C-alpha cells in the first residue's frame, strides 16, 4: 500500500455473526480522485466507511487513511478528514446554525474567532442559509442531509468521505451535491462518495469501486471501467443483410442484424469509414450512431437488476 493513495485497504473484512458484510476488500482511492463507492443496499458500503473512520473494528485486514495506518494514526489523520455518515447526531431543538456551531466548537483544529463566518459559508454551500434559523426537528429529510454535508465542510479537508450524500435530496439537491463535490475536488480534496445509484455519481467520478454482497467486484478509473474500445455502431437500413456483410468486411465484430438495421462492435475500426463503405456498397443508410456502453450498463451487469436486498 503506497502513500499516493488517500485510502487504501488490504483484505479488509468485517463479519456480523455468520454474515461476512465486508469480505477481504482491497480499496485503492488515489489522491485527488473523486471515487464513487457503489453498491446496492446492504452490500457493505457503510460498514467499510465505518471501518475506515475507525468507528467499527474490522475482523481482519489493514486500512490506511492519508498514509496513516488506522486506528493507530487516528489522532493525526482524522482532523484532515471530513465525513458524512448515516444518522449524524444533531440536536432537535437547536437551529441548523446552532447545531453547526456545536460541531465546529468540538473541532480543536477550528479557530473559534472565525467560527461564524465558517458556519455561514458552509450553510451557504449547501443552500441552507435561508433555513439556518429553523430548528433541526422541523427540517425535512433533504434539509437534514444538507446540514450533515455542511458539518463535513466546515473546515477544508484533504479527504472527504461522504456516505450517500444525496440520500433524501430532490433532483435539484442531487445536482447541487454533484456541483459541490466537483468544487471540492477542484480545490484539491480527495472525495470518497458512496451511492447505490451510479447515475447520481457517474458524471462527477474519476474512479469507481463496485461492491456486491460484501465483495469489491470492480475498481478502477472511469475510463478503464467503461472499457474504452467496446463502442458499438448501430446502422439503420432497409437492407440489414448486405449492411452486415459490409461491416464484417471492414473488420467490425459481433455483427448482429435486426429487423431495421444492424449493430456491431467497432473495436479498432475508424467509425468515419463505416458510412462511406456502406454507401459505396449500395446500402441505403437511414441512420447511424456510435454507442459507448454507459457505466450504468457495466454497473448493472455487475450487481444485477434485482430489487431484493441480498443477505
Ligand atoms: N451492526 C450490525 N449488526 C449486524 N449486521 C449488520 C450491522 N451493520 C451492518 N450489518 C449488515 O451488513 C450488511 C452491509 O450493511 P451496510 O450498512 O454496510 O450496507 P450498505 O452498502 O451501506 O447499504 P445501504 O445502501 O442500504 O446503505 C447488511 O447485510 C447489514 O444488515
Ligand atoms: Mg449504507
What does this structure look like?
With 311 residues, the protein is α/β, with parallel strands linked by helices. It folds into two domains: 5-226, P-loop containing nucleotide triphosphate hydrolases (Rossmann fold), CATH 3.40.50; 232-292, 2-Layer Sandwich (Alpha-Beta Plaits). The chain is 31% helix and 27% strand. It has helices at 45-52, 74-77, 96-105, 115-125, 141-152, 171-186, 198-201, 222-226, 240-250, 274-280, 295-303, and strands at 5-16, 19-25, 28-30, 34-38, 60-65, 68-69, 81-84, 159-163, 190-195, 207-212, 215-221, 232-236, 253-258, 261-265, 287-291. The strands form three sheets. A six-stranded mixed β-sheet has the order 7-8-9-4-10-11, sandwiched between helices. Helix 4 (115-125) packs across helix 5 (141-152). It is elongated. The two termini are 30 Å apart. The mean pLDDT is 90.
Q: What is this structure, in a nutshell?
A:
This protein is 31% helix and 27% strand.
Number of strands: 15
Name the poorly predicted regions.
Answer: none
Strand content: 25-35%
Task: Decide which structural class fits the backbone.
Answer: alpha/beta
What's the CATH H-level superfamily name of the largest domain? P-loop containing nucleotide triphosphate hydrolases
Q: Helix coverage percent of residues?
A: 25-40%
Amino acid at each position: 500500500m503506497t502513500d499516493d493513495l488517500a485510502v487504501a485497504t488490504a483484505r479488509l473484512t468485517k463479519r456480523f455473526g455468520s454474515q461476512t458484510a465486508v469480505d477481504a476488500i482491497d480499496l485503492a482511492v488515489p489522491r485527488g480522485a473523486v471515487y464513487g463507492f457503489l453498491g446496492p443496499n446492504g452490500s457493505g458500503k457503510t460498514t467499510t466507511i465505518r471501518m475506515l473512520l475507525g468507528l467499527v473494528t474490522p475482523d481482519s485486514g489493514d486500512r490506511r487513511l492519508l498514509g496513516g495506518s488506522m486506528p493507530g494514526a487516528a489522532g493525526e489523520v482524522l482532523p484532515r478528514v471530513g465525513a458524512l455518515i448515516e444518522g449524524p447526531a444533531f440536536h432537535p431543538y437547536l437551529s441548523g446554525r446552532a447545531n453547526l456551531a456545536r460541531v465546529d466548537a468540538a473541532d480543536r483544529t477550528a479557530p473559534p474567532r472565525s467560527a461564524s463566518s465558517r458556519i455561514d459559508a458552509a450553510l451557504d454551500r449547501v443552500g441552507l442559509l435561508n433555513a439556518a434559523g429553523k430548528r433541526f426537528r422541523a427540517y425535512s429529510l433533504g434539509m437534514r442531509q444538507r446540514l450533515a454535508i455542511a458539518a463535513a465542510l466546515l473546515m477544508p479537508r484533504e479527504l472527504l468521505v461522504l456516505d450517500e450524500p444525496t440520500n433524501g435530496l430532490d433532483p435539484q439537491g442531487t445536482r447541487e451535491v454533484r456541483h459541490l463535490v466537483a468544487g471540492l475536488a477542484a480545490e484539491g480534496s480527495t472525495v470518497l462518495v458512496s451511492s447505490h445509484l451510479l447515475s447520481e455519481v457517474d458524471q462527477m467520478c474519476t474512479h469507481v469501486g463496485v461492491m456486491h454482497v460484501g465483495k469489491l467486484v470492480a475498481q478502477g478509473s472511469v475510463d478503464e471501467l467503461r472499457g474504452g474500445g467496446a463502442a458499438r455502431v448501430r446502422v439503420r437500413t432497409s437492407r440489414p443483410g448486405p449492411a452486415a456483410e459490409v461491416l464484417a468486411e471492414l473488420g467490425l465484430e459481433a455483427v448482429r442484424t435486426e429487423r431495421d438495421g444492424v449493430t456491431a462492435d467497432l473495436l479498432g475500426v475508424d467509425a468515419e469509414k463505416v458510412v462511406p463503405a456502406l454507401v459505396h456498397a449500395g446500402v441505403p443508410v437511414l441512420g447511424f450512431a456510435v454507442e459507448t456502453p454507459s457505466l450504468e450498463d457495466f454497473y448493472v451487469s455487475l450487481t444485477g437488476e434485482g430489487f431484493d436486498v441480498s443477505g
